[in-house]
Amino acid sequence: MASTRVAEILRAAWAGSPDGTGLPASLAAACVRSLSVTGVGLALMTDDGPAGIVAATDGAARELEELQFTLGEGPCVDASGTGRPVLQPDLAATAPLRWPAFAGGALEAGVRAVFAFPLRVGAIRVGVLDLYRDRAGPLSADELTEALSFADAATLVLLDAQAGSPVLVPVPVLDDRAEVHQATGVVSVQAAVGLAEALVLLRARAFADPQPLGDLARKVLAGTVDFREVSDSG
User: What pTM does this model have?
Assistant: First the structure.
């Protein structure tokens, strides 16, 4: 997840939102500039489906997210459920059979292609990054690689937004509270991962429960929450 390209994406998003409050919207806008897409939407997801719209670059992108939130069907729902990207280069040809309720509204909004990327940490659903075009056509191999980098960056942005600290580097910076520093070290040992990935796991668990990051850190230190099962399942 912490690739050089992801770091560049996060720096560009931060440049568009110096105070960090508009980081998801800034990242979505950067995605439009970097890829041959018309718009981008970013949504939170839970096991029950869409949980809210975080960012949308234009009216059609917002309509795309609202349709899926309202109907509980569409590319983002399938991507989140399966954990795999859903690539629909010709929505008019495929959507009516696959998502009959969603198809009409999406096509009426001018959407002709949708590419949905799940944002996950392990089995934990964080959100979905939706890219759309107002014309049919697939993503090239290079564009797909770029889109996956944006998906990794978006995952970190959503996790850090939940934790209440801005993203400044390719992996989340350690929280300044001593308990989170210490708990990250414990999780690193329990799950047999590096400190950066341990912090992502810690924040993902806090996001999923949900609970404040500091509270979860104290539970880890008290031994009431254990991350050994992450290592065992890997």
Answer: 0.72
> What Rg do the C-alpha atoms of the chain give, in angstroms?
18
User: Are the beta carbons of 110 and 60 closer than 8 angstroms?
Assistant: yes
Number of Cβ within a 10 Å radius of residue 104: 13
196 SS3 class: helix
Q: Of 196, 203, 197, nearest to 220 (Cα)?
A: 203
Cβ distance 130 to 24 under 8 Å? Answer: no
Amino acid at 199: L
End-to-end C-alpha distance for the chain, whole angstroms: 17
Please give the chain's pLDDT, 234 residues, in tens: 447 888 889 888 888 887 777 888 999 999 999 999 999 999 888 776 777 788 999 999 999 988 888 788 999 999 999 999 999 999 999 999 999 989 999 999 999 999 999 998 777 888 999 999 999 999 999 999 999 999 999 998 888 766 554 443 333 333 334 677 788 888 888 888 876 678 778 878 877 777 777 788 889 988 999 988 765 555
